[in-house]
Amino acid sequence: MKKTLLLVTVTLLFSCGVQQKSADEEGSKKITITVRDIQESMEFLASDELEGRATGTEGIEKAAVFIENYFEENNIKPYFETYRDSFNIGEIVGYNIVGMIEGNDPELKNEFVILGGHYDHIGKGKEVDGDSIANGANDDASGTVAAMKFGKYFAKSKTTKRSILITLYAAEEMGLKGSAHLAERLKNKGLDAYTMINFEMIGVPRAADKAMAYMSGYNRSNFAPTLNKYAGEKILGLFPKAQQFKLFYRSDNFPFYQAFNMPAHAISTFDFTNFDYYHHVDDEPDKMDYEHMTSFITKMIPALEGMMNAPTKEVVLTEDE
Hints:
Blueprint: E1 9-13, H1 23-28, E2 30-34, H2 35-45, H3 58-73, E3 77-78, E4 84-89, E5 92-101, E6 112-118, E7 123-128, E8 131-134, H4 137-157, E9 163-169, H5 177-189, E10 193-199, E11 213-215, H6 223-231, E12 236-237, H7 241-244, H8 253-260, E13 264-268, H9 290-309
Parallel strand pairs: 6-9, 6-10, 10-13, 11-12
Antiparallel strand pairs: 1-2, 3-5, 4-5, 5-9, 7-8, 11-13
Helix pairs in contact: 2-4, 2-9, 5-8, 6-9
């Protein structure tokens, strides 16, 4: 059943890093993340117009243009000459979309935190009631939207000492091809990459007795407890089946772990019990919980901000899971 749009606005306040002339000026500098804003982005990216966003199609081209325009409107700069990082898979041309937010510390801005998600999907699926478009709302328009909203927030707040790359990948559904290409290109460029987080299927909530989200490869680093510390609550937990399902290796974090040997994980709220439409034509925008998505993004902002502003690289690799 389609969820009623909740007219809820989550307002996030930020410090500009300089002394404000008055309390009124301080209060007027706000960034808002709204349920409506998230839903509107989701409803475009997972619309029938985009025909399932298969890599190399007109549908994914429309998605790419939408993301590029969003970056430009929100002052997220291209990291390369343009926003596109193009690659070939046989005769298919794919392109990752890469934006940058420069950090505000003269030293730490040379270190990069990478946030991302894949914006492609499978295109067509098994037809159900005349519908054959696999819209890919949860997989992974939800993670794409999360990365876009984090980009908007940090580009406008200018509160991070380290620099950020917002990276949206094509050809994930073809075997992590887009993220593998970008990770290798960034490594060859000599990027000082500190950590990477991939947002994968965050459109539906977990059960009330579970942590809000989980991190793949939980025991491979101290990333999850570090983010929980800065969030002030346990947002990220351990999903015992993640190792059984080899989730660490199955998402776009893995190529970055391989290329940089750094903490690189996927964060998800999909745990195989709370969503029945993986790679299904009913993975539609009306199946998403937009209040949950807004809450997740809001809670993650101080967690990310704390990690990005720590004086040292406190997130480190530990034992394998």
